[in-house]
Design brief:
Layout: H1 12-16, E1 22-24, E2 50-54, H2 64-68, E3 75-77, E4 82-89, E5 92-101, H3 112-118, E6 122-126, H4 129-134, E7 141-145, E8 153-157, H5 168-172, E9 178-179, H6 184-191, E10 200-201, H7 209-213, E11 218-222, H8 226-232, E12 242-245, E13 258-261, H9 265-288, H10 291-304, H11 312-324, H12 342-359
Parallel strand pairs: 2-5, 2-6, 9-10, 9-11
Antiparallel strand pairs: 1-3, 3-4, 4-5, 6-13, 7-13, 8-11, 8-12
Length: about 375
C-alpha cells in the first residue's frame, strides 16, 4: 500500500530524545458544556466516555479536523504518542473526551484496520479506500464521513531535468524511475499507460536525499507538503518542483475518510448520529481558522520526537492548499460536504480491485461498493460556504 510519507529525518540525536514522559498543556479556560440533549451533547448519545481517533500517519495539517476537537485541557503523552482532552465542538464541551493517536512509524506501520481489529478502544480510524478494500473479516471497516474529498497525492519531478513536462506521462516518457513507497499507485499509472511497469521503484523512504542527488527521477509526494518543503526547507534544493495530482490520472480513492469497524457499526449508531455531523463541521471550521490547531500539530511533532519534522510554515501551506487546490470540497454529486458518491465508490472498486487482486493483497472475494461506506449519518445541511 502507498503510505503517507514526508520528510522523515532520523538521527542519533533525535532518537536519543524519544520516550519522554507525559506532559500537561493547557492553553485556555475550559469550554462551556453543550446544552443537555442537544446535537452537541455526545454523552447523551451513548458515545464512549473517550472517543479514540486513530490516524494513519504522523500529526499534520491534513488531519486537522481530528486535532481541532481536542479541548484546551489537553494532555500530551509523549511516551505513548497521543493527545487527550475534552472533545470540544463549535466552542462547547460535548461531555466526552477525545484521544488522537498518530500512525505510521508510531505503530510499526500497521494499517489502521489492523489496529482497529486489535484495539476495541479505537472508535474511528482514517482509512484510505484502497486500504479498506483489503480489510476483510474482522478487519472490515465502513467509512462514515469524507474529510479530504480528493487525494493530495502527487508525482513530482524537477522542471530542469524534464523541460516542458506538465504531466506525469510527459515527465516519465524518458524512462526515469518513478519512486514511491508502495506499489498501488505505480500499478495504476502503468495500467493507465502513464508509465512503463519497469519504471516502478518502490524504495522511497520519505527523505529528500535521493531526489536531491538524482533530480532525473520522479517521486511521490503530497501537493499539500512537498512543493513548500522543497522550495523553502531543503537548503540543498530551495527551488520549485513540478508535479501532477495522482487524482488527475485515476487515483480516485477517498483519502483518509473516517471509518468505523464494520462489526461495531450497530452499537455505535446512536453516537455516530451526532459525532459524524460534528466531524463534518470540524473540518470546515478548522480550515476557516487553522492557526490554533496547526500550533497543536507542530507542538505534538516536537513533543513526540520520532524524527518526523513538521514546521508551522508547511502546516499553514497545507491548510491553504487543501482549499485552493480543491482537495477539500463538497461532494460534487450532492453538494454536501463529507458525503460519499455511490458512483465514485463503484469506480474505485472497478479500478483498484483488479490491481489489488493481481498483487495478492485481496485474495478473497472483492467487497461490494455498498459495504465500504454509509451516508446514513451525514447531515445534508452541512456544505462548504453554508456551515
Amino acid at each position: 500500500m502507498l503510505r503517507r510519507t514526508g520528510l522523515l529525518v532520523i538521527t542519533a540525536l533525535v532518537l536519543a530524545g524519544c520516550g519522554g514522559g507525559t506532559q500537561a498543556a493547557s492553553s485556555g479556560p475550559a469550554a462551556p458544556a453543550a446544552p443537555a440533549g442537544g446535537p452537541l451533547d455526545l454523552a447523551a448519545a451513548g458515545c464512549p466516555a473517550k472517543i479514540v481517533f486513530q490516524q494513519d500517519w504522523q500529526p499534520e495539517a491534513e488531519h486537522g479536523a481530528m486535532y481541532s476537537v481536542v479541548g484546551p485541557d489537553r494532555t500530551i503523552d509523549a511516551a505513548n504518542k497521543s493527545v487527550t482532552g475534552s472533545l470540544v465542538a463549535q466552542g462547547v464541551d460535548t461531555g466526552v473526551d477525545v484521544e488522537v493517536r498518530p500512525g505510521g512509524p508510531n505503530v510499526g506501520f500497521q494499517p489502521v484496520p489492523a489496529l482497529m481489529a486489535l484495539d476495541d478502544s479505537i472508535t474511528l480510524g482514517a482509512v484510505n479506500t484502497d486500504v479498506a478494500l483489503t480489510a476483510t473479516g474482522n478487519q472490515a471497516v465502513v467509512a462514515v464521513a469524507s474529510q479530504l474529498t480528493v487525494s493530495p497525492q502527487i508525482i513530482m519531478w524537477d522542471p530542469a531535468s524534464h523541460p516542458g513536462a506538465t504531466t506525469i506521462q510527459q515527465a516519465a516518457a524518458g524512462g526515469a524511475p518513478v519512486v514511491t513507497s508502495g506499489d498501488v499507485l505505480p500499478a495504476l499509472l502503468a495500467a493507465k499507460g502513464v508509465m512503463a511497469p519497469s519504471q516502478s521503484d518502490t524504495s522511497y523512504e520519505g527523505t529528500p536525499a535521493r531526489f536531491v542527488a538524482d533530480p532525473t527521477i520522479l517521486q511521490q509526494g503530497f501537493a499539500t507538503a512537498e512543493p513548500y518543503i522543497y522550495e523553502n526547507e531543503i537548503p540543498q534544493w530551495n527551488k520549485p518542483i513540478a508535479f501532477q495530482k495522482a487524482a488527475d490520472v485515476g487515483y480516485s480513492i477517498y483519502p483518509e475518510p473516517l471509518a468505523v469497524r464494520a462489526d461495531k457499526l450497530d452499537a455505535l449508531r446512536p453516537c455516530l448520529q451526532k459525532l459524524v455531523p460534528i466531524m463534518q463541521r470540524a473540518q470546515l471550521d478548522y480550515l476557516a481558522n487553522p492557526g490554533p490547531t496547526n500550533d497543536l500539530i507542530v507542538e505534538l511533532v516536537n513533543e513526540y520526537q520520532t524524527g518526523w519534522t513538521y514546521s508551522a510554515g508547511v502546516a499553514a501551506f497545507s491548510a491553504k492548499a487543501q482549499l485552493e487546490q480543491g482537495f477539500v470540497t463538497n461532494d460534487p454529486a450532492s453538494g454536501v460536504f463529507g458525503r460519499f458518491d455511490p458512483a465514485r465508490m463503484q469506480e474505485i472498486v472497478n479500478t483498484f480491485v483488479p490491481i489489488l487482486q493481481a498483487q495478492g493483497s485481496l485474495p478473497g472475494p472483492a467487497p461490494t461498493p455498498e459495504s465500504l461506506y454509509t451516508n446514513e449519518f451525514i447531515d445534508p445541511s452541512i456544505s462548504m460556504g453554508t456551515s
